[in-house]
Write a structure and sequence with these properties.
single chain; 265 residues; Immunoglobulin-like; 42% strand; binds 2-acetamido-2-deoxy-beta-D-glucopyranose
Length: 265
């Protein structure tokens, strides 16, 4: 199975620590079920009494001491150490793992936050339905206009299109947020209307073809062959069968009655 790993980089730059000190940290988006690599990008040298920790929301995930390491109870089965440095892989992230991840070096003179990431775990977006609103199609020789609704489990947007033979203008349907960091957007592209449901880690879309909406009433529906067969051929067939049967029975009656009358007399 394909496994993706999202990388975090520890940058040992003082100005970065300061600029990120108060902020929520660099945003990182992870697809639910994937792994997160907490990568150290510079050699960390710990003094005898120094510690290096990866934390989530201030609680330890793992703490490295001068010659040992300890994984917090909540993370024992979920942490891997890919290499012989302070990099850590956190496995199988769930929505509840969203939070602020920090790399902290603890020394006698205090704690230094070396990196800060605002990790958000998102699931795949749900499928969307794109439908033409009932009775919204209106058209004349030069233009056609209609309204579509695109709906997901959580929200919906409407958008009205007015099309001439070459182009369509659109009203409404711009990117709008249902749940945070999730977007619904209706747009047009090469003769189609597309509704795109997306978040930071996935997207799904549905398409309808503009011609199918606007030319719906142009062509009379093609004659359906079934009623023709039923309405014309069946009666003829039945009449033919009745006729053949009738002839057959008649000739049989004539044949069987003539010798009878002959022998009786
Ligand atoms: C971890 O960071 C180092 C230094 O930036 C980089 O060379 C390395 O490719 C990163 N590791 C992974 C697995 O991306
Ligand atoms: C830690 O190991 C990773 C994977 O081999 C490597 O990319 C990274 O550069 C190493 N970090 C340091 C500081 O050596
Ligand atoms: C472990 O998880 C529980 C529940 O999620 C939480 O209450 C507790 O503080 C966590 N413990 C540590 C050491 O992070
Ligand atoms: C971290 O804190 C945020 C916001 O308070 C919370 O939504 C999230 O679930 C927490 N993450 C963990 C792993 O406790
Ligand atoms: C580092 O961890 C060790 C063992 O858990 C502890 O005794 C020590 O006080 C810690 N050092 C610092 C600077 O916090
Ligand atoms: C749209 O119209 C059709 C027939 O006019 C009707 O069967 C259908 O239930 C309507 N749909 C909605 C969502 O109103
Ligand atoms: C067709 O309809 C559009 C808008 O509904 C209108 O602007 C246009 O003038 C109409 N054209 C004709 C030929 O009726
Ligand atoms: C999409 O349409 C199908 C069939 O009409 C329906 O079962 C499903 O619940 C709809 N999904 C959404 C997200 O509206
Ligand atoms: C979208 O259109 C539907 C049906 O016409 C209507 O019920 C709904 O309120 C509209 N929603 C918005 C956000 O305009
Ligand atoms: C849908 O939106 C996502 C995120 O903005 C984008 O990457 C993707 O290409 C879009 N898909 C379509 C079919 O427009």
């Amino acid at each position: 199975m394909k496994s993706f790993v999202t990388f975090l980089f520890v940058v040992y730059e003082l100005y970065l620590c300061e600029s990120q000190g108060i902020s929520a940290g660099t945003p990182v988006f992870v697809l639910k079920g994937e792994d997160l690599l907490l990568n150290v990008t510079k050699t960390v040298v710990l003094g005898k009494f120094d510690n290096f920790s990866w934390k989530c929301n201030k609680s330890n995930i793992v703490r490295f001491t001068f010659n040992d390491k300890g994984v917090s109870a909540n993370y024992t089965r979920r942490v891997e150490f890919p290499v012989n440095n302070y990099s850590v892989i956190l496995k199988n992230l769930q929505e509840a793992d969203s939070g602020v991840y920090t790399a902290v070096v603890a020394t006698d003179s205090g704690d230094e936050t070396e990196a800060k990431y605002n990790v958000k775990v998102q699931d795949r977006v749900s499928p969307v339905n794109l439908t033409v609103v009932n009775n919204s199609v209106s058209r004349n020789s030069s233009s056609c206009s209609f309204t579509v609704t695109c709906s997901s489990q959580d929200s919906h947007i409407n958008s009205t299109f007015t099309c001439d033979t070459r182009t369509c203008s659109q009203e409404g349907g711009e990117r709008s947020e249902g749940i945070p960091d999730t977007f619904l957007q209706v747009h047009q592209s090469s003769g189609s209307i597309i509704c795109n449901h997306s978040n930071r880690v996935s997207w799904t879309d549905t398409t309808i073809i503009i011609k199918d909406v606007c030319h719906q009433h142009d062509v009379p529906p093609p004659p359906n062959p079934v009623p023709i067969i039923l309405g014309v051929f069946f009666p003829i067939l039945i009449l033919a069968i009745i006729g053949v049967l009738w002839c057959y029975l008649r000739t049989r009656t004539i044949r069987s009655s003539s010798p009878d009358s002959g022998s009786n007399r």
